Amino acid sequence: MMITANITQESGASLPLDGEVDTRHGPILYLEDVSVSFDGFRALNHLSLYIDDGELRCLIGPNGAGKTTLMDVITGKTRPDTGEVFFGQTIDLLKMDEPAIAQAGICRKFQKPSVFDALTVFENLELALKTDKRTWPTLFSKLNGEQCERIQEVMLLIGLAGLKNQLAGILSHGQKQWLEIGMLLMQEPKVMLVDEPIAGMTHQEVERTAELLLSLQGRHSIVVVEHDMEFVRSIARKVTVLHEGSVLTEGSMDEVQNDPRVIQVYLGG
Amino acid sequence: MNFLKQDKTYASVLMALAAVTLIIPFCNLITSADSPLHFSAYSVSLIGKYLCFALLGLSLDMVWGYAGILVLGQGAFFALGGYAMGMYLMRQIGTRGVYGNPELPDFMVFLNWSELPWYWYGFENFGFAMLMVFLAPGILAFVFGWLAFRSRVTGVYLSIITQALTYALLLAFFRNEMGFGGNNGLTDFKDILGFNIQSEAVRSMMLLLTGSSLIGALLLCRWIVGSKLGRVVTAIRDQESRVRFLGYRVELFKLWVFVFAAMLAGLAGALYVPQVGIINPSEFSPLNSLEIVIWVAVGGRGTLYGAIIGAVLVNYAKTVLTGLMPDAWLFCLGGAFILVTLLLPDGIVGLLHRRIKPNLTLNASGEQPA
């Protein structure tokens, strides 16, 4: 498969064989019949969702539809009451905790930009870098030339190369969003979960973000949660609409926007 | 050593420590007791004591200032290190005790014990005792931290259980049956490594050792803080859950720093005991651990040298004020804490830096490889 070949080439080092993500059947993420309740409130209700390897998928839905809870379930933050979540054919994500899932290659950008304010742009990216993340190796870690180049590359890509030694805390909201996307890229993920990437961005920044996400598809599987319909239209091939914790419909942006049930949910409520 | 050029305060604190560590023992070596350059045994031990407290403050700054874990029981690790050293010193007394028992310390003879409890074995050996200075606090911190961090106990709850930990140890060490001398603790030491512990040479030597340990610990801590592990720990302090999603096992990083700081506190305790000549359960008292927090807050949290400055200043004030008006000390301490919290959130160091450069950060970004 072209896509798999691309991933290995891009990331430089391939995972050990037993940790390899098996995507021979197409999907890289399987969620089947997942339900989550908080104090009686059903955040996810028998939700099933499949994300293909290399796909760029947009998730939309009104507030409370369960978009963020879905990301929490995939990344190990929330355990579902019932259902199955698999990464490829073989890796059961429900048996793993957050760091293990992140190391396996599922990375997440949060709704509220979460960068480390007391560290510089460079250091934020350095911490995200895919490498040995145990305590002792981290204590003695030194960046090699290749890793420095990689950080430099990502800084150029996200437009922060000139702010290398600035503290992340003084960046603008849009720049923080970009830095966090950069941190995702440093982790060389197979799956990127991107929660509201363009909140607080200027028009130009939004355009650049769309370009960036489009350029990444194929190499990474990307799931974008966004409210801005114009933005979703500009990047999405396939859109999934969530409503009250389950998938309402899936399809192209046009199909979805003309679906009477979607119109009902958004307008009629 | 780049940070010395970047941060003048670091350089000054290191110079001052080196000066105290070298000049005082040197003066006492070459001058006679009536010379004006001669430091009295009292002042040598007093300065040595301040330096032990500085080391203890430094250990708390690692865990509180950088990892964000407010430990209200750091004194427990200090006391355990002190007890390990005290046990060695007790075994050195030999037949010179009141009861002249070659094997058992006086308090055991007094309790009618016939043989040495198993946990006293090996403490006649200096190397073993030194190992225990690090291992006893280290193992306690490891077990406690493993349980607490793995269950994701954080914030105020963690602070309170560390306080409970030191209080529990206080009560336990008060009991005669524990075999650590009950409320009298361990005292009446004679020798250390065969030298008379009261002698001026040994006092000067202890000061030299304490000062060099403090300088070494400060450099080691600075290296750790400047390492990638230091940055991970800072990131955990500010956004713990985010670090998990980067693939770091947050609980293990916290545990690493917690155990390291506990061992450093143990070393401080071990250096303290020969200089003050006694270790008793009051070292476990929660109030002592709270005082350590105040030293660090007054000096300036998250700077390492701030903890040293704070520990020395507060303890000097304590020496002076408890001499002048003993009852007022706790009010002054509490007042200092409130003032610092309200007016100087970055402590004395923050005040110094605010005048030099407005944007003081925890890490020296210029040290990054290009």
From TrEMBL, chain A:
It comes from the Bacteria. Residues 29-269 form the ABC transporter domain. InterPro entries: ABC_AA/LPS_Transport (IPR051120), ABC_transporter-like_ATP-bd (IPR003439), ABC_transptr_urea_ATP-bd_UrtD (IPR017781), BCA_ABC_TP_C (IPR032823), P-loop_NTPase (IPR027417). It comes from Methylomonas rivi. SUPFAM superfamilies: P-loop containing nucleoside triphosphate hydrolases (SSF52540). The keyword Nucleotide-binding applies. The keyword Transport applies. Keywords: ATP-binding, Nucleotide-binding, Transport. This is Urea ABC transporter ATP-binding protein UrtD. Pfam families: ABC_tran (PF00005), BCA_ABC_TP_C (PF12399). GO terms for molecular function: ATP binding.
UniProtKB/TrEMBL annotation, chain B:
The keyword Transmembrane helix applies. The chain crosses the membrane at residues 12-31, 37-56, 63-85, 126-149, 156-174, 205-225, 252-272, 292-316, 328-352. Its main location: membrane. It comes from Methylomonas rivi. It is a multi-pass membrane protein. Keywords: Cell membrane, Membrane, Transmembrane, Transmembrane helix. PANTHER family: HIGH-AFFINITY BRANCHED-CHAIN AMINO ACID TRANSPORT SYSTEM PERMEASE (PTHR30482), SLR1201 PROTEIN (PTHR30482:SF4). The lineage of its organism: Bacteria, Pseudomonadati, Pseudomonadota, Gammaproteobacteria, Methylococcales. InterPro entries: ABC_transp_permease, ABC_transptr_urea_perm_UrtC, LivM-like. Pfam families: BPD_transp_2. The gene is urtC. This is Urea ABC transporter permease subunit UrtC.
